[in-house]
Amino acid sequence: MISPTPTHRPLQGAHARLIVVAIVTLTLLVGCTKAPDSGPISAAEARLIRSLCLNVTLPPSPGNRVADDANAAKLGRALFFDKRLSANGQVACSTCHDPAKYFTDGRATAKGIADTPRGAPSIVGSQWLPFVFWDGRKDSLWSQALGPIEADVEHGFSRVAVARHLATHHRAAYEALFEPLPTASDFADFTRFPRQARPVDDESRHAHNVEWNKMSTADQATVNTIFANFGKVLEAYERKLLPRKAPFDRFACDLQSGAAATGHKSLSDTAVAGLRAFVGGAGCVNCHNGPLLTDKGFHNLGLPKKPGQSGVDVGRTMGAGRVKIDPFRCGTAFSDSQDCEELKFLNPRFEDFVGAFKTPSLRNVAQTAPYMHAGHLKTLKDVVKHYKELPGKAEIGHRDLVLKQVDADVDTDALVAFLQTLTGPPPEEQWRKP
Amino acid sequence: MSKKLAIAAFSGLGAFLVAASSFAHPSGANQLRSRAQYLVATSEDWLFWDWHPTIVFGILAMTALYTLTITRWRNALAGTEALSKYRVQAFYLSMVIEWLLLDGPMHHLSDELLFSAHMFQHLGLQLAWAPLFLWSWHPWQLRPLVRNKWVRKVAYRLTRPVTAFFVYNGMTVFWHIPPMYNLALEVHGYHIAEHLLFMSTACIFWWPLIGCLKEVPRPGYGQQIFYVFANMFAMKILGIGISLQDDVIYTYYLTVPRVWGLTAIADQQVGGLLMWLPGGLLLWGGLGYVFVQLAQRGTPKRGSSGIAEVDKILKERKSKAATVASVATSVTLVTLLVVTAGCGKKAETPPIAIAPASATAPESATAPATAAAPVRVAESSKPQLSGNGGGGKLHFDLRFSPPAPKVGELFQVVTIARQVTSSEPLLGAQLEVDATMPHHGHGMMTDPKHAEIGGGAYSSKGFKLHMHGSWTFVVKAKSGDVTDELRVKWEQPPESL
User: Fold this and answer.
1) Which of A80, A133, B88, B257 has a 20 to 30 A CA-CA distance from A393?
2) Over its length of 497 residues, how does chain B's per-residue pLDDT go in tens digits?
3) CA separation, residue B64 to residues A33, B6, B76, B292 (Å)
């Protein structure tokens, strides 16, 4: 054993080859186990994928008693496309929510009368969201509709003008659903009902606010009620703009455990690989879950400030604070529901709301570029790249800790291919035109 | 030492690992989700054999390197120097030990479930693996490493007894500071770093006792004795410090399922004891070893390597020991192969924990009651979550309404709190329930409201879990001087509204 061994020959041919082959094979096998998602689909994966299937029913909207009324929907449709509901007569809801573009506008940030700081989200699929707007400052679709109408840079309009418009152009349809409107001669009296008047909480010297303060309390209450009803018929219309089954759903809804990774009819192999990364290694499903691929929550992605952006967008923190005091929220006299659990338990002081924005639904995402709350990212590839790099720091607050960098070897093209399969047919044609 | 034995050992080890690999848990599950599957655990799930590519790759690479040095490169490196059969066997044994400690049931037990298992793993690495591993390298294998002057200088400095003492014990103490310990458990990257550091500093620790290079010499036997004593004390102090804590200081273990009925505090005490006693014993062994050398040979010349003395002592019992060691290694390999064949399938079962369909019972619990008349809370339905608080004073049962809330669905939690010792319901307590995802660093977006219902029942409304995965529910109760806290895991399935 310890006796000095005479010099011996180094390993000869066959033995050397055996060792090299063994090492190489084992190394490759180790490499193979790191390869993502190449075996058959496991039970857990199939379950997760099935949970994304668009097998849903429209939830009720208890705060809006005409939410499912067909006539309300028709009135809402007429109003949605009406450009006269704006200060310059050029802006309708459909200006930024264009039916031809899945009810968004293809711009980084929306432009009504002037540029706004955020993009226009698609209305398709918004019916399931407990809070709407990028910062969730409204808790129903009908109260949301009231926001852009009165925003200076969007419609620049006001509730008194809306009431007058309804009385002038849609009296019969309105009065079939709600209480009678003030008469034509009432509205002809501009001292009682100014041309433009609305409360402007943060700018008391705004012309519209000055006019509003001149109105009697009773008239203000009347106009507020009409305004709320206006929102409700718009919601009735918007509830027709439903997401429809996409090629992804043909694959996902019946997916069984043990299904092969390739060779499916409804989804290409690349898209299947992308889907498996989506629910697996890339972790997208942590926020983009459920049939609409959104957790209906709010997260800070640590997006950088856009060049030329003034100020910092605080996001959900502001939104959560505002929705709790919104005059048209659930539980107020204008809402037809007093059961307001979402609002009651909302915690506006939740730390991670700072700089957080709504998780958008990924249904039809390939058709709703550019992406993020101010159109920071132009293409889906850019989006995946962002999640792989997570560059820079959040402009305010901190990037959500749930976000881990997506592994560099996750196939970007596969993820994009999968995301494209989420595009379903647009809502029914009758609702896509006035 | 024959090439054939080396090849056979290496191939056997490789084949074993390849066989075990076919039972690996599903690739493609990201680390968080696969951890989530573990964390679902009923306590029996720890039998699952893990298989970490980084560990296996590391072991295979090290094995390949060693085998190459004793076969292909032996001529160039060793020249006429001896090849010791025992060292070679020690090496392969150390690789098996390393694999058993880092993968396999020990991985799950120590990473996820038990502080004491984690202690056992660390002690195994530092006091069993490290000396075996270190001793298995012949001086001629290590000599190429220290050809570089700077490497030699650094190695020399690091392995002087005083430095080695501080490096080894400093590293150990550092990772036992509760925030670092918890961090290593929560972020796997830190855990890998922790193990690598433990393993390397353990080698530094053992060098003054069994190092074999004359370029980096061991100190004299007297110094070695002092060195072992000092390290024993350091380890005992740390072990005592941990086992005598009143409260759980490694709070990560409060969030995991209990195994074998060990409470978190008992588990912590066992872990501390493991460090105190067997840790100490092993070092007594080291001390004995040094004494034997001293007795046999006296003080070696300064700068001598001492190999000849060591091998001579072992030679006396060599023939029997050699046979036993070879047979034991082969038997272990075969046994492990057979055992792992049955254990891998657990990975396929999806996470558990959907509540039983038995139902709406908690609704009845919301009827208000006076404090005097206890409310008949329907306890016939199985609680979704249940457990004793970490302080062992209160038992909590949590029922959800609806019983299987979906992702994004608002739900209510009704908690029933009882004293552990007397089973009396806890009345008039301030009780709060919260849910977080510690691995994601966030809680819920809602702010639940709590109210006492009566009869030990407390309602918490406004829960909403906005994503699937591993949530931790935290129940805190305080009534008079009775305070307790329960942390328990809930696996939220992915179905959403």
Assistant:
1) A133
2) 566 676 667 666 766 665 554 444 333 323 333 333 333 334 445 555 667 777 888 888 899 899 888 888 888 887 778 888 888 989 999 999 988 888 877 887 887 778 888 988 888 888 889 989 999 998 888 888 888 888 888 988 888 888 898 899 888 888 988 888 888 887 778 888 898 899 999 999 999 988 888 888 888 888 888 888 888 888 888 888 888 887 778 877 765 656 676 777 788 888 888 888 876 776 777 777 777 777 777 655 544 445 665 555 555 555 455 556 556 666 666 666 555 554 443 333 333 222 333 333 333 333 333 333 333 345 568 899 999 998 899 999 999 999 999 988 899 999 999 999 988 899 999 999 999 988 777 788 898 999 999 889 999 999 999 888 889 999 999 998 889 999 999 999 888 76
3) 20, 11, 17, 34
Chain A residues in contact with B72 (beta carbon < 8 A): 10-11, 16, 19
A85 within 8 A of A164, measured Cβ to Cβ: no
Give B-chain residues touching A30 at CB under 8 angstroms.
21, 53, 56-57, 60
Residues of B in contact with A285 (CB under 8 A): 468, 494
Q: Which of A74, A96, A222, A233 is nearest to A155 (CA)?
A: A96
My answer on whether omega of the bond before A425 falls inside 30° of 0, hence cis, is no
Distances (CA, A) of B360 to B89, B368, B463, B490, B493: 63, 17, 17, 19, 20
Question: Of A18, A291, A401, which is closest to B442 when you measure between CB atoms?
Answer: A401
* Residue A51 sits at the chain B interface (C-beta within 8 Å): yes
Treating both helix axes as pointing N-terminal to C-terminal, what angle do B149-158 and B161-176 enclose, rounded to 10 degrees? 70
- What is the torsion angle, in degrees rounded to the nearest 10, for the CA atoms of residue B431, residue B436, residue B441 and residue B447? -70
- Which pair of tokens denotes residue A269? 């192999």
Phi, psi at A15, each rounded to 5°: -65, -40
DSSP letter for A306, please: P
A34 touches chain B (CB under 8 A): yes
Å between A47 CA and nearest CA of chain B: 8
Residue A231 CB burial class (10 angstroms; 0-12, 13-18, ≥19): buried
Residue B349 CA to residue B248 CA, distance in Å, equals: 32
C-alpha–C-alpha distance, residues B124 and B117, integer Å: 10
Residues within 8 A of B (CB atoms), A 363-422 only: 400-402, 404
Question: Is A42 within 8 Å of A257 (Cβ atoms)?
Answer: yes
Q: For residue B83, list chain A residues with Cβ-Cβ distance below 8 A.
A: 5
Q: Residue B259: which of B45, B431, B446 has the closest Cα? A: B45
pTM (2 d.p.):
0.58
How far A402 CA lies from chain B's nearest CA (Å)? 5
Nearest CA in chain B to A279: B29
Q: Does the beta-carbon distance from A276 to B28 stay under 8 Å?
A: yes
* Helical residues (DSSP H) of B213-254, grouped into ranges: 221-243
- Say if strands B457-464 and B449-454 run parallel, antiparallel, or are unpaired: antiparallel
Query: Is the CB of residue A342 less than 8 Å away from at least one CB of chain B?
Result: yes
Q: Is the dihedral of CA A326, A329, A335, A340 positive or negative?
A: negative
* Bridge partners for A356 per DSSP: A315
> Among B84, B444, B464, whose Cβ lies nearest the Cβ of A2?
B84
Closest Cβ–Cβ partner in B21, B64, B84 for A29:
B21
User: One-letter amino acid identity for B452?
Assistant: E
Complex ipTM: 0.75
A84 alpha carbon, distance to own chain's centre: 27
